[in-house]
Design goal:
heterodimer, A: alpha/beta, Dihydrodipicolinate Reductase, domain 2, 6-stranded parallel β-sheet, 18 strands, globular, B: 8-stranded mixed β-sheet, 10 helices, G6PDH_assembly_OpcA (chain B), OpcA_G6PD_N (chain B)
């Protein structure tokens, strides 16, 4: 950047009451009529405005195939905000926001629409002082990515005028294997510089995930035992209680491993396993996460150490639910996995010999995401074996959602005359110690995009490295066997339990 | 639940707290700070309500210290401590103890408060009214990391402001300053957009408004230009003008929550600038518990500021 350095005399690093307000900017959402946009993006924009974190003159441009005028769009946003926003509705905040709303009706291959978009962007620069800074949020199915970025390029929207920025925001899936991910990256990077492309993994916007780094690197008491000398194994779980719902078209052929393990679970694993970054900036974090992902080694026998499953019909939480193969729009012979468990090893000095078990699934017992670091047993116990019969392994569990917090499990004496030791837990809950309503992940991520802060966004190298881990597993599954069936509402197929039993371990019940 | 204790001591109150927590089944809660509110009976209700609302963001143990004046001279010599322990749904997300002191114990309220502080957690003292002359030297103020006063609640705000400037100690803060945060952040954002040096400035506000004076001093200190104080009809701060070579940057809020921002060469636009409730102000105060250096700068004004390294 060649802009002259301008120091705002009203800002000072010591003045920490002043919030990080995004600079002059606007957000263009493609696919603005979609579910994500209505339930997450629009409310997040409003919540940011309500918290005073958006610049005066912030503008929101919607682009979709609807015959709407600006006011109709504003009405849709209004309804979405009313229904889904986290903070209370305030008329004055709404007015401030509504003045900067524009809507562009059109298709993605409609040149006039993109010309209108360009005019709108220029008009906003003039009338709202957005300063040429725009983020383009592609809330559209990946098959439209090439078309949209090409149109942005063609109409000169992707090129930032001197001293301003243009950013692209894309959502998962980032391809369905290494080759397609590389292709997608090539298309997007052809138009936007790699550091101006923000890939949303909304898990990374969650407070608890950011807290993994605080827990590990701001404290002295965890890091010394965070290694192979003390840790027995690590379990990372993301369970959903819902089925595929109406997403049959998207889900079938993709499956849980590609949908969840490739991005969310491998990111959680990288944050759990990585070394301390030199500083807390995007490039240092990337360096460390990449190092871990590159050190990941797959088990030699994929049949023994990976499991996939499909939910069968059954009862879940008191409701009768159909099996995956009976869901509407699913081929009864489908081999798509709705449950996947894999064992990974990280071949470095810190983690050699410590398995990482990653599992995800739909229609499991309850909705929960957690990282459990399970410790080895004490090398020697002065208590006799009857005293410690009920003592399990110590564990630190990071509860990512819901009920965000951290649990520490350890043994404690049961009150009484005899020596008996049993597991107890010590609990830190976010909801208890901090704000009841911590910001939604999307709020944080949208603000970061506008600020240009890339800490919480996976870079294309990470995406590609993750596919390198998953691709061999998917290939093995494609040619060997069928997914195991598991009862809806259970914690996965029998085979998954056997997979851990072979290693002499067992899954936690989350 | 609520436990009433008459003619009691701190250790009995501590027992009641444990008993209350056991009874509602939450033996350990993640409270992050102790909030001590020193006030009179008249302001106690509103202050406690604000603190309980703020406790949704910062679960805390709230100690409300009310100094009572007995009616008869004989009663006045007798020292007595009454307490009301509230836990669970009646106390926001934490615990509340209302302490009423009569007679001599009123002068030794710190001896009651000290044993009731949460172990190892920060302490905040808030005087909604009648703050001591030197907050950091007050026996209760000395227990705290953070001392909150309110210039809106004094007889002669501008004179008190001078006193506060003289007696400032790290950890002092004032709600008149807290009220300015939205103004300050919008002014900073406006300059982010204007990107030009400011050559003159003016703050318009109702007469004798301490927040306006603090804002003017802050602007003087940061912009290094003299700031005009213009008296308007109010309410509170109504406008700030920053003169630049290209024209004026103005935030104008004649009334209500909607302000207008004008930047040179750009059409004006509206801004939400609401007057916030006390509970929101307290919640903001509790977000950071270290010394607020910028408040010290604003209190001292331009004449005494040391040159910051990065300018």
């Amino acid at each position: 950047m060649t802009t002259p350095v301008w120091t705002n005399p009203l800002r000072d690093p010591g003045d920490r009451r002043l919030p990080r307000i995004a600079g002059p900017s606007g957000l263009v959402i493609f696919g603005v009529t979609g579910d994500l946009s209505r339930k997450k993006l629009m409310p997040a924009v409003y919540d940011l405005a309500n918290r005073g974190l958006l610049p005066p003159g912030f503008s929101l441009v919607g682009f979709a195939r609807r015959d709407w005028a600006d006011q109709d769009f504003a009405q849709v946003v209004h309804d979405a905000v009313r229904e889904h926003a986290r903070t209370e509705f305030r008329e004055e905040v709404w007015q401030q926001l509504a003045e900067g709303m524009r809507f562009i009706p059109g298709d993605f291959d409609d040149d006039t629409a993109f010309k209108q978009l360009r005019d709108a962007v220029e008009e906003l620069d003039a009338s709202r002082g957005t300063g040429g800074n725009f983020a383009f949020y592609l809330s559209v199915p990946p098959k439209f990515f090439p078309k949209v970025v090409e149109q942005l390029k063609k109409h000169g929207l992707a090129k930032a005028p001197e001293g301003s920025w243009r950013r692209a925001v894309i959502e998962k899936p980032f391809g369905h294997d290494l080759a397609s991910a590389q292709q997608l990256n090539a298309i997007v990077h052809d138009v936007f510089a790699p550091d101006q492309v923000f890939r949303i993994d909304h898990y990374l916007g969650k407070e608890t995930v950011q807290n993994i780094l605080a827990l590990r690197f701001a404290n002295q008491m965890f890091e010394p035992i965070w290694n192979r000398s003390y840790v027995d194994h690590i379990q990372i779980t993301m369970a959903e209680d819902i089925g595929i719902g109406g997403r049959a078209g998207y889900y079938d052929g993709i499956g849980s491993a590609r949908d969840v393990i490739q991005n969310h679970l491998l990111q959680l694993m990288a944050l759990t396993a990585m070394e301390e970054p030199a500083s807390f900036d995007a490039s240092s974090l990337l360096t460390e996460k990449l190092k871990v992902l590159k050190a990941v080694k797959l088990p030699e026998d994929l049949g023994e150490h990976t499991v996939r499953g499909q939910y069968a019909a059954g009862w879940q939480g008191g409701a009768q639910v159909p099996g995956y193969l009976e869901e509407e729009g699913i081929d009864p012979a489908s081999t798509t996995d709705t449950y996947a468990a894999v064992r990974l090893n990280v071949d470095n000095r810190r983690w050699a010999g410590v398995p990482f078990y990653l599992r995800t699934g739909k229609r499991l017992g309850r909705r929960v995401t957690e990282i459990a670091v399970v410790f080895q047993r004490a090398p020697h116990s002065p208590f006799d074996s009857t005293a410690t019969e009920e003592l399990g392994a110590n564990a630190i569990v990071i509860r990512v959602q819901p009920d965000e917090g951290i649990t520490v499990r350890f043994g404690s004496k049961v009150p009484g005359t005899s020596m008996e030791i049993r597991d107890v837990t010590m609990d830190f809950a976010y909801g208890e110690s901090f704000t009841e309503s911590s910001p939604e992940a999307y709020e944080r991520l949208i603000l970061d995009v506008l600020l240009g802060d890339a800490n919480l966004f996976p870079r294309h190298q990470e995406v590609e490295e993750s596919w390198k881990i998953l691709d061999p597993i998917e290939e093995y599954w494609a040619t060997n066997g069928r997914p195991a069936q598991y009862a809806s509402g259970s914690w996965g197929p029998e085979e998954a339990y056997e997979m851990l039993a072979r290693d002499g371990r067992s899954w936690r019940r989350p | 639940m609520k436990i009433d204790l008459t003619d009691t001591t701190a250790s009995k109150i501590n027992k009641a707290l444990v008993q209350g927590r056991r009874a509602i089944g939450t033996p350990a809660v993640g409270m992050v700070l102790t909030m001590v509110i020193v006030t009179d009976e008249e302001n106690a209700y509103d202050a406690l309500k604000a603190a309980e609302e703020a406790s949704h963001e910062h679960p805390s143990r709230t100690l409300l210290v009310i100094k009572r004046h007995a009616r008869t001279p004989r009663e006045r010599t007798r020292s007595r401590l009454d307490a009301e322990v509230r836990v669970g749904s009646e106390a926001g997300t934490g615990e509340t103890v209302v302490l009423r002191t009569y007679g001599e114990v009123s002068d030794h309220a710190d001896s009651v408060v000290l044993p009731l502080l949460l172990p190892d957690a920060p302490v905040v003292v808030w005087w909604p009214v009648d703050a001591p002359g030197v907050p950091s030297k007050d026996p209760l103020g000395a227990l705290a990391q953070r001392r909150i006063t309110d210039l809106y609640a004094v007889e002669n705000p501008l004179r008190t402001l001078e006193d506060r400037a003289r007696s400032y100690a790290p950890g002092d803060t004032d709600l008149a300053w807290t009220r300015l945060t939205p103004w300050r952040s919008m002014l900073a954002a406006a300059l982010d957009q204007a990107r030009v040096p400011v050559v003159s400035a003016a703050v318009e506000a109702e007469a004798e408004n301490p927040a306006a004076e603090l804002l003017a001093r802050w602007l003087e200190a940061r912009l290094r230009v003299p700031v005009d104080r213009v008296v308007s009809d109010g309410p509170v701060v109504t406008a700030v003008r920053l003169g630049t070579a290209d024209g004026d940057v103005v935030i104008d809020r004649p009334e209500g929550p909607l302000a207008t921002l004008s930047l040179p060469g750009q059409p004006s636009r509206t801004l939400a600038l609401k007057v916030r409730s006390t509970s929101e102000l307290i919640a903001e105060e509790l977000r950071r518990l270290d010394a607020d250096e910028m408040y010290a700068v604003a209190l001292r004004g331009e004449a005494h500021e040391e040159t910051p390294a990065h300018v």
